[in-house]
Amino acid sequence: MKQKKKISFSFIHMGAPSLLMIFLVLCLFTFALLSLSSAKNNRTLSQQSADRIQAYYQASSLAEQTLDQIDTILSDAVYQREIRKQLKNCSVDGVSDLTIDFTKKEGTLSFQVPVNKSQQLSVILTLPAPSDCQNGYYHITQWTTETTESWDGDDS
Q1: Do the Cβ atoms of 73 and 86 come closer than 8 Å?
Q2: Spatial CA neighbour of 98 closest among 53, 67, 138, 119
Q3: Which segments of 28-137 are extended strands (E)?
Q4: Which of 1, 21, 98, 148 could form a disulfide with 111, with the two C-beta atoms 3.0–4.6 Å apart?
Q5: Strands (E), 9-147
Q6: Cα torsion for 143, 145, 149, 151, to the nearest 10°?
């Protein structure tokens, strides 16, 4: 008599494709979460950058308004005494520490405009002598952003 061959059917052959499919789904899910996290972080960074740029340009606009007032005052002034008197009346909201110094040959005028709670825009103008005003009433010597708070780094 003929013997029937027993066909052995292993459970390993049945489970390997299922395990591979589960592993691939988990990998795709992990990569999707990493992509989502990266996109969220990039959006947050972009928003912070846009906020900083907007704050800087608002401060720059205030500084330009102050320069416009200073230009008007300097064009009408008889000079040092008159400039000091009129600059006391010069005010733009947000501009602070408007100081003038005529101790050197050329006078200097400086003011600060807050950009945000940790930065300010610092502007210094050089005022030429009255006889040298053909090229303008002032020269912008400094227009920089400065920090107003000390930075405390993490030393851990």
Answers
A1: yes
A2: 67
A3: 96-101, 107-116, 119-127
A4: 98
A5: 96-101, 107-116, 119-127, 139-147
A6: -130
CB atoms within 10 A of CB 46: 10
**How many Cβ atoms are within 10 Å of 122's Cβ, its own excluded?**
17
Determine what percent of the chain falls in helix, strand and coil, rounding each to the nearest 5: 55, 20, 25
Q: How far apart are the C-alpha atoms of 156 and 146, rounded to whole Å? A: 27
Strand order in the sheet with 96-101: 96-101, 107-116, 119-127, 139-147
pLDDT digits (tens, 9 = 90+) for 86-116: 666 666 676 767 777 777 777 788 888 888 8
Check: pTM over 0.90? Answer yes or no: no
31 or 127, which is more confident: 31
Q: Which of 146, 147, 150, 143 is nearest to 62 (CA)?
A: 143
Q: Do 148 and 124 form a contact (C-beta atoms < 8 A)?
A: no
